[in-house]
């Protein structure tokens, strides 16, 4: 993973009393302070966010492409720490189709 400013996006422990943090490059998924689960945290005051839902609605016309089709990666702008060249998708987040 490429380096990203740890002050903008980082991992934070889900336990409210803990406050432990890790860099995004750390793949251990457990808090170094209490052993709890880590979650991605953003400093939304410093990160650019889409101006409106219309930005995402416009992607519907691109749904034949893998990233806009994906239920996760169609929101790529909200995951600025993920280099687009490294993104893999299998169409996750799409409705399941039951076959009789």
User: How many whole angstroms does the radius of gyration measure?
Assistant: 16 Å
Biggest sheet character: 3 strands, antiparallel
Give the overall pLDDT as a whole number.
78
- Strands, total number: 3
Overall form: globular
Task: Give the uncertain stretches in residue-range form.
Answer: none
- In percent terms, what proportion of residues is strand? 5-15%
Question: How many helices in DSSP terms?
Answer: 2
| Helix-strand topology string | EEEHH
Q: What percent of the residues sit in helical stretches (DSSP H or I)?
A: under 10%
Domain count: the total is 2
Which strand order do you get reading across the main beta sheet? 2-1-3
What separation lies between the terminal Cα atoms?
41 Å
Summing up helix and strand content along with how strands pair, one would put the structural category as mainly beta
């Amino acid at each position: 993973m490429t380096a990203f400013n740890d002050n903008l996006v980082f991992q934070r422990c889900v336990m409210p009393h803990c406050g432990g943090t890790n860099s995004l490059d750390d793949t251990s998924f457990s808090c170094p302070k209490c052993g709890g689960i880590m979650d991605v945290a953003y400093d939304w005051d410093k990160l650019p966010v889409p101006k409106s839902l219309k930005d995402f609605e416009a992607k519907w016309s691109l749904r034949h492409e893998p990233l806009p089709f994906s239920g996760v990666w169609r929101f790529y702008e909200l995951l600025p720490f993920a280099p687009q060249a490294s993104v893999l998708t299998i169409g996750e987040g799409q409705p399941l189709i039951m076959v009789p």
